[in-house]
């Protein structure tokens, strides 16, 4: 249970650096064989989790473990009740069972409040035409369920977020500046990480907000050596002192730019006003302090990735400002060209089975009705999605437009062979097949979205010993618009800032976008489920818990979408 608790202390509290079970390694592709949906894997997963996570007393178990087991017991009809352990599970409701939150998210109980603490009457988040505002000036500004420090954390704001608030504090328990009610829900402590001044320098410097469609920001990956992180724009002399290899690197860069694979930078934008006249960028409230004399604030490591708020020219060199408010020289990086791949939304006219074209330069075929011979037709796009009729002929599959494709050229995602008990009503759930490298989003029994993914590089291996995706039934409990992932394993170091649309469902495993590769449909990750940016954005906006428009993350053990990972 130690590893699980270590994860809870990072993901559920929302620290920037998270488990390294997710990221990419070399591909080991298993054969895409359709796995039948049976109850057996769910029961085995349940038995394994109960055995591992409840080896100690129930008091030592994490609340989310209890919620997961109760959820599984409910949907599969497994009787786990006993008078001295669980109490009765008859008619158990997973939402009720999950009400107990992890200590890191809850941080105590109402009984711990200091004597005499007064809580102001609840107010609407804003009144009248003069709308009062609250802004985040830290990487994480926590939102609490109630106006007290020891209440449950339900999400956080990112620096630059500006939200409507109540006119007066609603309580002061554990917060000298008071807790303000914000829209659409929750309370924020007015302290180091928040301000009532929407014109605060940090707010102005981080006004570029994350997009919720495709990549949230523009991204770059570091070259070797990585870029120096500057607090202000350096003069030419300062650049040469800070980057001792700069003269050599500029010569090397000329050959790099001649490479056909080189991605040209987009047209430069305007220099941020905060950098004018040699001024330093303001520091985030939860970052090390800096001042006007501060020039450098770090050096990017191996395989670093950055999200940019802006990019511009300075003294003949292109610079970008990262979400951590550092200026980096972009010639030390590679501009990320996002994957154009996207799965398919499904409806009555287009539903499963769906075929994805998995061979480049594949074509469709026209079939002679009399002789049955196939004639080469139009070219097909790599990973193009095709609706199928279900008709087959000598190694060919018929598409809904009447053409045919070679079965060997495509990967077919079939309808579920057996309906799981949780697929009732319009309940949302996600099906991930490791062998097919596919993801299907369902509402009840209706598939609404299908795409290709990259799961763990080691296929069906033991996730404790290899880079494999964990199998079982889980609930999404934490969602970040972006979050940093890093790893220091020898020979596999990385530091990827602002990984997009991260949705944790158990331990260090998550659904998330990958901006550093375009191999979707092939196993490649450290264990997480990698999605193309557009797919990850769609899924993030569809699943629960909802992340309000101005927030950067949301946490909930009660209402998360179910995720089923299997062979």
Write the layout of secondary structure elements.
Elements: H1 2-11, H2 40-53, H3 63-76, H4 94-97, H5 103-106, E1 133-136, E2 141-144, E3 153-157, E4 162-164, E5 179-181, E6 187-189, E7 194-195, H6 201-205, E8 218-222, E9 228-230, H7 236-242, H8 246-257, E10 296-299, E11 304-314, E12 317-322, E13 327-329, E14 333-335, E15 344-345, E16 354-357, E17 363-367, E18 374-379, E19 385-393, E20 396-399, E21 404-406, E22 410-413, E23 428-433, E24 438-443, E25 446-452, E26 472-475, E27 478-487, E28 494-506, E29 509-513, E30 529-531, H9 533-542, E31 553-555, E32 562-566
Parallel strand pairs: 11-28, 23-32, 29-30
Antiparallel strand pairs: 1-4, 1-7, 2-3, 3-31, 5-6, 8-11, 8-14, 9-10, 11-12, 12-13, 15-25, 16-19, 16-22, 17-18, 19-20, 20-21, 23-24, 24-25, 26-32, 27-28, 27-31, 28-29
Helix pairs in contact: 2-3
What does this structure look like?
By secondary structure, the protein is of the alpha+beta class. It folds into 4 domains: about 1-105 and about 340-350 and about 415-565, L,D-transpeptidase catalytic domain-like (Beta Barrel), CATH 2.40.440; about 115-200, Roll (SH3 type barrels), CATH 2.30.30; about 220-335, no CATH class; about 355-415, SH3 type barrels (Roll), CATH 2.30.30. The strands form 7 sheets. Strands 2, 3, 8, 11, 12, 13, 14, 27, 28, 29, 30 and 31 form a 12-stranded mixed beta sheet that branches. Strand 20 and strand 21 form a beta hairpin. Helix 2 (about 40-55) packs antiparallel against helix 3 (about 65-75). The longest helix has 14 residues, at about 40-55.
């Amino acid at each position: 249970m130690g590893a699980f608790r270590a994860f809870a202390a990072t993901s559920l509290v929302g620290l920037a650096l998270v488990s390294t079970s997710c990221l990419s390694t070399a591909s080991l592709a298993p054969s895409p064989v359709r796995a039948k949906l049976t109850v057996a894997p769910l029961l085995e997963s349940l038995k394994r989790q109960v055995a591992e996570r409840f080896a100690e007393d129930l008091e030592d178990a994490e609340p989310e473990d209890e919620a997961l087991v109760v959820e599984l017991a409910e949907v599969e009809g497994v009787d786990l009740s006993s008078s001295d352990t669980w109490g009765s599970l008859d008619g158990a409701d997973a939402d009720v069972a999950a009400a107990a939150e992890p200590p890191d998210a809850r941080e105590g109980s109402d009984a711990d409040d200091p004597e005499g603490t007064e809580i102001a009457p609840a107010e609407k988040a804003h009144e009248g035409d003069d709308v009062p505002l609250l802004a985040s000036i830290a990487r994480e500004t926590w939102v609490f369920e109630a106006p007290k420090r020891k209440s449950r954390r339900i999400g956080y704001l990112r620096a630059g977020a500006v939200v409507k608030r109540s006119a007066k504090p609603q309580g002061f328990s554990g917060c000298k500046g008071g807790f303000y009610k914000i829209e659409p829900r929750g309370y924020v402590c007015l302290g180091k990480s928040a301000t009532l001044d929407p014109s605060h320098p940090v707010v102005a410097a981080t006004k570029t907000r994350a997009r919720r469609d495709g990549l949230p920001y523009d991204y770059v990956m570091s070259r070797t050596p990585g870029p120096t992180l500057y607090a202000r724009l350096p003069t030419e002399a300062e650049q040469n002192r800070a980057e001792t290899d700069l003269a050599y690197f500029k010569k090397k860069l000329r050959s790099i730019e001649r490479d056909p694979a080189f991605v040209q930078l987009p047209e430069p934008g305007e220099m941020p006003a905060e950098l004018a006249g040699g001024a330093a960028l303001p520091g985030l409230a939860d970052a090390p302090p800096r001042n006007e004399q501060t020039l450098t604030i770090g050096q990017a490591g191996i395989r670093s990735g950055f999200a940019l708020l802006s990019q511009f020219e300075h003294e003949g060199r292109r610079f970008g400002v990262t979400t951590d408010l550092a200026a980096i020289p972009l010639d030390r990086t590679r501009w990320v060209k996002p994957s154009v791949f996207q799965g398919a939304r499904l409806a009555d006219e287009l539903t499963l089975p769906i075929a994805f074209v998995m061979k480049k330069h594949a074509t469709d075929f026209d079939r002679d009705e009399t002789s049955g011979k196939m004639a080469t037709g139009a070219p097909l796009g790599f990973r193009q999605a095709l609706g199928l009729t279900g008709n087959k002929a000598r190694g060919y599959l018929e598409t809904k437009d009447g053409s045919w494709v070679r079965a060997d050229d495509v990967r077919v995602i079939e309808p579920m062979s057996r309906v799981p008990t949780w697929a009732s009503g319009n309940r949302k759930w996600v099906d991930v097949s490791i062998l097919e490298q596919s993801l299907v989003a369902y509402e009840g029994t209706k598939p609404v979205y299908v795409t290709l993914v990259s799961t763990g590089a080691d296929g069906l291996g033991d996730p404790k010993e290899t880079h494999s995706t964990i199998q079982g039934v889980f609930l999404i409990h934490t969602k970040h618009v972006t979050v940093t992932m890093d790893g220091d394993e020898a020979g596999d170091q990385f530091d990827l800032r602002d990984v997009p649309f991260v949705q944790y469902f158990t331990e260090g495993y998550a659904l998330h976008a990958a901006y550093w590769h375009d191999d979707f449909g092939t196993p490649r990750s450290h264990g997480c489920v990698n999605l193309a940016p557009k797919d990850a954005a769609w899924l993030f906006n569809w699943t629960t818990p909802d992340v309000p428009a101005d927030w950067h993350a949301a946490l909930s053990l009660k209402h998360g979408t179910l995720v089923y990972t299997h062979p």
